[in-house]
Design brief:
homohexamer; 248 residues; alpha/beta; nine-stranded mixed sheet; two-stranded antiparallel ribbon; 9 helices; 32% helix; 28% strand
């Protein structure tokens, strides 16, 4: 077992979010990011990796479905040149299957493992864990799979984001699917909320092991340079239900 | 993989909607349009194709159930002569089965593929994706089918609308069915809402990759010349729940 | 395919409803009427047929369960003599099974088909489509059945009402059962609503292809001469939820 | 088929309810009475039969589970001597199985049928139809069973009450179970409602073929002589949801 | 069948509850007590038995899971010495299986039956009926089991309490599980309710055959000597939903 | 069976919670702690064990999934040195499987049993019981398993905490899963609640056998030295629903 040492912080590349997190993610932690389609999970993940690349913390982006080309293009529209970062060895876009990735964490001498190790990534983003939900219908086996993922990435020293697809477009009070929310160290909720007859976005930290963190629910938007954290909501109730109302 | 280039905008034929979309749909994107029966999905799709035809952007309307004749008639009542546009090679009404259409995207030399290619369509409307939901009960296979659809149409350079049947007549907080909402670039919600003791229609953009977009929920109506976007709602909460209430 | 011609209007026999419909039903359209038991679906259907008989538009009432005698008696209490209309060849009460009726639409030379044709009905009421729901558990096959029904009646030139049994006694936000709501041209909702500590009835047009229509939700009652449309509701929210409340 | 004649009214023995029903139940009709345990369905049924017995309209009480002795005792506490009425031939307490009762309606020369006929009952109470729900899991077969019940009792000239067990202790917006609500002529709802921090009882007529009827929801109580209808509720919303609130 | 006689009242040992019940439980009746874990069902049952023991009405406490020792200890903390009452023949703690207990009610000469009879208990508490829910998945067989229980205890002349485990920690609008609510004479609801930001307890009588009873929902607490009935709630709505609110 | 004796109190290490519990947990009791991921269940459990260690009450922490190393590290961030306490024989971190632990409670001479006994723990924490939920799909067998757990730990004289994973991130009105809530002596709810547009934490005692306890719902936070109980909520309704609102 790894020796216990003072754990540093890992910046997310989003100053407002680092602030909510009490200074950034805890180094080596596993982070679940739950959100509906389009709310900004992937943008957050890219911003996290690009930020790492700038600080000599190489990162790994694992996708199971979306061709890296799409990500490369979307990132470009936000001013991020993923291919250039790849060329500099600061980023690795990995397009694989859940099974292969899982095995690479179990068999440390697999080609994929060695490729990953040669780069010594400090950050990882998995987009998305939904593909692991689908590997088995047996909750015990699934729990085992998640354990392998979470512990495998920790063992390699990575601070990793697990992007999770919320099945409801609006509203937060979702049921935990499988054991992942219990296994990770931190949970971020990204939510759409109907407010003032418009679609807004809300972010909140639900769980964060080993750190104080902000409790307020904040607005966020996706601007020209990625995610920007806005003001906390105020005078509203039921934000995480997806349909907020003013305090009477 | 296709080279990355500056992506233009594709007008929807509905000025208010183009404006909400920050100038139109992103060229080459896949757009999910979710709505209850009769709310106006098909009208939006026709308006999109007719608008394209006027700009020398040929379009393809794929239906799996409704005879083109019905569409032709409905379009005529809105002043659109689909048969004439077909005659001019600016529109193609394709009545086929989900299986055949899917195969045409996989086997590039199939008769259907060649027919489609000879016309070089820039726009596509699939009415509706519900027929693909029903091809398999296996979520992994379904995800694969959706991938084939989305990527196949992109590969051919089309900006495509996927019409999706919402199973509730009223109210929005629907669960995502399958992976399609995660695969598309843009999601539009079209909803009935009971407001002031009347049935109103609401439209909102939930997700739009690679573009800023309006966040407000707007009224819309179907007038003599198709869909017209109205004012944003104001002073209401819970519009997307299907039963709005005034702000207390 | 039938030639496209200017489509007329078909009166429902209920002036207030014709007015809501922008002048009546669209000729040749298929209309879904959704309502809880007792709310007045059959009364509306009878009123429609009696009204047609007076205008030399013969009608067909297809029941699958209720003996025509019951309908004849109920109609008499509203002043309508169905047997007399049958004698004059202006109405035909058909008591059959869903399977036989379906086949008559498929095999144009079946005895039933010929009987129907000899009368040349312009209007049809099916009471109720619930019997078709039960023919198969396969949604694709059911969709096919509904297509056969809707298109078969259109082919014969009838403007037809499909009475559909809502499974909740109160409240509207029902899920669409099968594909029928997507296949029909028009959807009318008839609903019970608790209002002012009493059971009221509400009617609204949800969908109407090829026509403008009223958006308001109106009261209706069943009086001595059938359905009478009342005032629109006002100052209420949540009518279609079954339990309206005053605007705060 | 029976000749059509002017249909009289059958008093329920509860003046307030007769008044709500526009003069009583329609002669020969089938009435569904839906209520939670203890709300008063059986009391209403007994009161109906005792009232008939006093007017020389013999009645049949069919139970499938509760021994007649329990009913006899409960009735005595309300001042009704069922055994005496049985002795006078004005009432028959029949304790049987759903299967046997159903067959007696199908085979007109069965011993039970003949016994019933010799008494020539004008009224019937079935306590409860839940026992028929359980005869089959096939909705088509169940619909057939209900048809046999409803039509069999009508054929014998009885005005019959079908007591139906609501599965929720509080609240009304129940889903119709099977086709019975569509087959009967009249539906009465008996409901518990929490009001002013107390358990109240509410009654409403939802459906009544061939008659005008009261629309208001009224209080009722079970007093020394059975059910007594009270005032309509007023200034409340959501009574049938089981948890009423004052109008704001 | 037992002769009908004037039925007395059986005190529950809780004066406020006897008062709500119009003088106590009806002698020989079957009473269902529904409540969430910890709300006080067993305490009510013990109090009922201890009260009986003091009035020379021996009682039987049947448990299927909890060792009598636990009950003995819990009772002691409330000042009740169950072992002493057992020694005096005024109480019998019976730890058995549902199957054995059921058979003892069917085979009157079984060892258990004879043991029970020799003591001639007038009161019984079954803790809990959940164990009978689990004997079979067949609702008809379960209904038969409940009939055997209810009628068997009545036949032996006992006034019996059936403790039922509500599956929701908060809130009342529970669905009836099986037929038991219809078979018993009386239903008491014991509920947790969040009120004024605290966990309160509420009790209400839903059903009571053959007796007038209080309709109000009252507070109760568990004090040093068991359950004490408090004031009725007032100025609240939705108490039985588990989350009351002030009347606006 | 163990002789009945005056039962003492066991401090939780959290003064505010001891106060809510009327002086601490009842000695030898089984306590269910229900909470969403990250709300603080494990922190409470560690605090309980560390507090015991300081008072010469050795404790046992049983985990089934999370490596003790993680706990050790998390505890260190709160100032607790678990390894040191293990070295002093005041704490035992046991990483095992549910099956093995269960058997150790059944077979008193198993190696694990003997190891446990040699330490004579007075306190136990099981993190979490979810692993027992998954041992069987048969509710009767599961009830038996829970009985074995609860009674086995009682028999060994331990006051034990059962950490239970609530499947909803927000909101309390959860359904009891299996029989455990009925078998334990005490139930604590730990909940997230959205309040004033922020994520707050709430704690309440739902059930506590053999003791008076606080009824109010209190805030709590996780500070530098573990859980700290804050003020009761006031002027709010619906706290345990997860989305509180101000009293109107």
């Amino acid at each position: 077992m790894s020796p216990i040492r003072k754990r540093g912080r890992v910046t997310t590349g989003i100053p407002g979010l680092d602030s909510m997190l009490g200074g950034g993610l805890v180094e080596g932690s596993a982070v679940l990011i739950s959100g509906a389609p389009g709310v900004g999970k992937t943008t957050l993940g890219l911003q996290y990796l690009v930020s790492g690349a700038k600080q000599e913390e190489p990162g790994l982006l694992v996708t199971f479905e979306e061709f890296p080309a799409t990500l490369v293009r979307d990132a470009r529209s936000l001013g991020w040149d993923l291919r250039a970062l790849e060329g500099e060895g600061k980023l690795r876009l990995l397009f694989t299957s859940p099974e292969v990735f899982l095995k690479s964490l179990q068999a440390l001498d697999s080609p994929l493992s060695e490729t990953i190790r040669s780069m010594a990534p400090r950050r990882a983003v998995l987009d998305s864990v939904a593909h692991f939900h689908r590997l088995t219908a047996d909750p015990i086996e699934l729990r085992h799979i998640y354990n392998t993922l979470v512990n495998g990435l920790k063992r390699e020293g990575m601070t990793s984001l697990f992007l999770d697809e919320a099945t409801r477009l609006l509203g937060a009070p979702y049921r935990t699917v499988g054991a992942l929310p219990f296994l990770v160290d931190t949970i971020l909720l990204m939510r759409y909320v109907e407010l003032d007859s418009a679609m807004q976005r809300a972010i909140a930290i639900l769980k964060m092991r080993g750190s104080a963190h902000a409790r307020e629910i904040r607005r966020f938007s996706i601007g020209q340079h990625g995610i920007e954290i806005g003001e906390p909501f105020s005078g509203r109730e039921g934000i995480l239900s997806g349909s907020a109302h003013r305090v009477a």
